[in-house]
Amino acid sequence: MHTLTKQPTSFLDAITGPAELKQMSVEDLQKLAGEIRQEIVSSLSRTGGHLASNLGVVEITLALHRVFNTPKDQILWDVGHQAYVHKMLTGRRHKFGTLRQFKGLSGFVTPVESEHDAFVAGHSSTSVSLAVGMAIARDHLKLDHKVIAVIGDGGLTGGMALEAINHLGHIQKNVLIVLNDNEMSISENTGGLALYMKRIKETFFYRDIKEKLDSIEGSLDKVQLTAGIWDMILEVKKQAKERFDTPGIVFEKLGINYSGPIDGHDVSAVIKAFESVKDNSAPQIVHLITCKGKGYQPAEDDSIKYHGVPAFSLEPQLSEKVDASAPKPKAKTYSDIFTQALIDVAKDEPNLVAITPATAEGSGLVKFGKAYPERFFDVAICEQHAVTMAAGMAKAGLKPVVSIYSTFLQRAMDQVIHDVAILNLPVVFGVDRGGLVEDGETHQGVFDIAFLRSVPNFTVLAPKDAAELRDMVFTAVKESKGPVAIRFPRDKAIGATADGDANGSHSSKPRLIDPTKWEILSGEKSNNGQKPPVVLAFGAMVDVSRQALELIESEVKPVLVNARSAKPLDVNLLNELLRDGHDTFITVEEGCLSGGFGAAVLEWMSTAGLEISNTMPRVLPIAIPDQFVEHGARAILLDLNGLSKEKIAQRITKIITKRT
Questions:
Q1: What residue ranges in 494-627 does DSSP mark as E strands?
Q2: Does the pLDDT at position 409 exceed 50?
Q3: Residue that terminates a domain, selected from 487, 511, 540
Q4: Do 385 and 533 sit in the same domain of this protein?
Q5: Of the four listed, 124, 538, 574, 660, which is most buried by Cβ atoms within 10 Å?
Q6: What is the pLDDT of residues 216-230, one digit of tens each?
Q7: Rounded CA gap, 290 and 183, in Å?
Q8: Is residue 309 part of a domain?
Q9: DSSP code, position 563
Q10: Distance, CA of 25 to chain centre
Q11: Nearest of 198, 161, 196, 184 to residue 55 by alpha carbon
Q12: Residues 188, 212: one domain?
C-alpha cells in the first residue's frame, strides 16, 4: 500500500466543461491528456475502478468534446466504464474521489448524474442500437444534432451490435460509430471478427489505395474526358475497392462508410478524423487504434489485470519507498472454488467442457483453460451464442458448463428457455455475481432466482459455503439429467483458505450430495412447548442468518435451515415442519422479492400448507425490495436492503416478540 505523489494539473484545473477544450491548442491538449492520466491513476489508487480502459481512451474523449457539443450532440458510451475522462470533462471532476463509493459518482454513465450522459450504460454492445434509435427519433422530430456511438472492438463482437450495424447500413441514418480498438474487453477478444480487426491494424493499404484513387480522380477532373472514359474510371475504382483485401470492406459492404485505422493517441489526428466526418449525412465508422492502459506501464504490460482494480493496488509510478513485507495470501472466492471444482471433475469426465462469454478472467475460468485448453471455449461477448452452443453440445453428448455473470445471463433468457429447457438438456450454469455487487443498477445480480425458477425443468441451487459449492458442481456434472443453475456471490468463500481447497485441506475430495434436500443446521423443533419460527436461508444468506440468530436475545431460538435449492423446494422437510406444528416461516435470500425464493415457499404454502395445517402458515420473506439498487460496497448495500446480520436479527426479533 502506498500513496502516489499528486502531480500538477494546471491544464485540468482550468477545465470546468467541454467548452474550454475548443480554445486549447493541440499541444496543450496533449499536455492535458498527460494530466488526466495522472489524475486517473492517483484517484483510482484510493477508490479502485476501471483503470486500463480509461487510460486508453483519453485522446478519443478529448477529441470528441473538442469537435462535438454535448449535451446537444449525443455521445453513447458502450459499457460505460470507459467514460471516466468524459465525467472529468463534463463538470464532475470535483466528485471523482467519490467514484463507485456509496452515494458518490457512478462507475458508469447515467443521465440521472449528468445531462452529458445520453443514456445509461453498464452492459456491452448496446451503443449502436441506441444510436440508431436516437437518430430515427431525431430525424422524425426534425432536430439537428449528431449521434455518436463509442464502442470497443470487444463490444463489436456482440450480436446486438452487429444487428444494429446491419440495420444502420440499410436505413442510412446519420450516425457516427467511433470504434475504439484495443484488442481487449474484460478478457482477450476471441473470434473471427477479432482476427479481422487485428488484420486491419496490420495494414494501412486500404487508406493508401483510396487516397491514390481519389487523387487520380481529382486530377482527371481538370481534363476533358468523354462519358465513356469516366464510366471506365469509376468502374476501375469500384473494382479496386471490391477486389483488394481492404480493411474496411466488410463495413462498407454493409453500407457503413469506413475511415481508418488511425492512431487513437494522436489527438491531432483524431480531431481531424472527427472533423472530416462531422457533417456527413451517411453512417460512418472511424476506426481508432489505442493501447489499453496507455501511460501507466504496469497497465500497458497487463491490461487484463488492470482492467478493474481495487483501491491501493497500483504499483508506484516513480521510485518510491514501498512496504516490502510479504503480502498476505488472498482468500479464495466462490469463483475460485467453482473453477477448481471444474478442473477436479474434468480429470475423470473427458466430455466436460467449459464455456464463458468473455469473462474468463473475471470468473477465474482462465485456470481451467490452461489445464484443458481443448475443452475451454471463450466465445467473446456473445451470451446468447454461449447458451445455445452449450445446448448443441449437450444434445450431441458432451457435458457443457457455462460460467456466466448473473446480469449477463439475463441477455440469454430466450436461449435458456427455447434451446436448453424445452429439451431438458443437461447444461450446468455457474451463475457468478449472484447477488449484490458494488457496480450499481446495471450489475446487480438479483433477478436470476426469480427468472430461472419460472422456467420448467430447471434446478436452481445456491451453496452455503465453499465445500457445498464444490459438491454441487461435482453432483451436477456427474448426475444431472436436465439444466442446473448454481448461483454464488462475488465474495470470499465461506470455509475456504488461501492455500487450500474448499475445506482448507488439499486431501478432501468432492462428494455426491442431494442438493435438493435441505438440512437443519441449528435450533430445536420445540422450546417449552412452543414451536419456534423456521428460518429458510438460501445460499450466501445461510451464514449471515446464522450470525443474525446469534445476536437474538430471546429464549425462543428459531430453527435455521439451509434451503439450498430454490427449485425444487424440499417439500418433504416442509411437510415435516408443518406437521410438527411450526406455523411461521422466514425466508432469507439475496435476490429480488418479486418471484424469488420466498415467493416460491409462499406459493407452496398457499396450497399444500393448508392441507397439512389447520391454519394458513405465515411466510415472511426477507429479500431485496422491488427497486433497483445503487452502487456501493456490498456490505453497505446488504444493510441498506435489510440483509445484514443486524437487520435480519432485528426483523426476526420483531416476529418473535409479536408471537409471544
A1: 519-522, 534-537, 559-562, 565-567, 584-592, 618-624
A2: yes
A3: 487
A4: no
A5: 538
A6: 666 666 666 677 776
A7: 9
A8: no
A9: -
A10: 38
A11: 184
A12: no
Under 8 Å between Cβ of 651 and 126: no
Number of folded domains in the chain? 4
| pLDDT reading at 323 higher than 80 | no
Give the CATH number for residue 348. Answer: 3.40.50.970
**C-alpha distances in angstroms, 465 versus 106, 452, 485, 544?**
31, 21, 16, 11
Q: What is the CA radius of gyration of the chain?
A: 28
Give residue 417's pLDDT. Answer: 96
Active site residues: 292, 383, 411
Q: Based on the domain organization, do 189 and 210 belong to the same domain?
A: no
Residues 197 and 123 placed together within one structural domain of the fold: yes
297 grid coordinates: 506501464
Residues 258 and 241 in one domain: no
* Domain match, 167 and 224 both: no
Residue range of the domain that includes 239:
204-246
Q: What is the mean pLDDT of the chain?
A: 84
The answer on 394 and 524 residing in a single domain is no
Locate 300 and state its grid cell: 500497458
Interatomic CA distance for residues 187 and 357, integer angstroms: 9
Identify the CA nearest to 643 among candidates 625, 618, 655.
Answer: 625
Residues facing 152 on adjacent strands: 180
Kind of pairing, strands 428-432 and 459-461?
unpaired
Where is average pLDDT lowest: 39-43, 119-123, 607-611, 647-651?
607-611
* 311 pLDDT above the threshold of 80: no
Asked whether residue 5 is domain-assigned, the answer is: no
Q: CA nearest 147: which of 64, 61, 23? A: 64
Q: Name the pTM for this structure.
A: 0.79
